[in-house]
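Hello,

Our lab assistant flagged a job as stuck in the queue for most of the afternoon. It eventually completed. Since we weren't sure the result was trustworthy after the delay, we are filing this so someone can double-check. Below is the sequence as submitted and the structure that was eventually returned. Let us know if re-running is recommended.
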Amino acid sequence: MRSDAQRNRKRILEVAKAAFTRDGADASLDEIAKQTGVGAGTLYRHFPTRDALLEAVYRSEVEKLAAAARKFAAAMPPIEALRAWMLLFVDYIVAKHIIAPALNSLIGGSSRLFEGSRSLIQEAFEDLVKHAKKSGDVRRDLDASDLLWALIGVSHVGSGADWQQSARRLVDILIAGSRPLK
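-- returned structure --
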């Protein structure tokens, strides 16, 4: 793909995420194209259907989350990388909750899409936990799957105005509980 086509695709996904977040699955594709600064033909060349665009937005978010794990692991001490990723995951869940109703409009539902994303998220998280174990920052008996389930639970603490702040505090509690016993 040419560099201008890659830029267009990336920009379309950013604008579409905002539109689906704001307006749901019925967001105007013409308005998305207009806000992106491309013609409708360019949008449809990249994403021939609304479902294709919805799916691409969701996949893009999952890929960003997985890439962030690698970036954090390379740039931060293991425990800080794990915490930073867990906080980012809380933000991801916010986006997933907002986009989920739109994803449910996909033909066949969103379950196959969510299934495909699970392994990317799980692998990224398991790598971060493995590095934190190796460094001694977390308990050796910590099961990454258990911690991920707890994190998913944290991300569903509620829908009140301050639930995100609460979820962030709970991430710190999970990190503290993951530390080696003294």
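-- support follow-up --
The delay was a queue issue, not a problem with the job. The result is valid. The radius of gyration is 18 Å. The chain has two domains: 1-48, 57-178.
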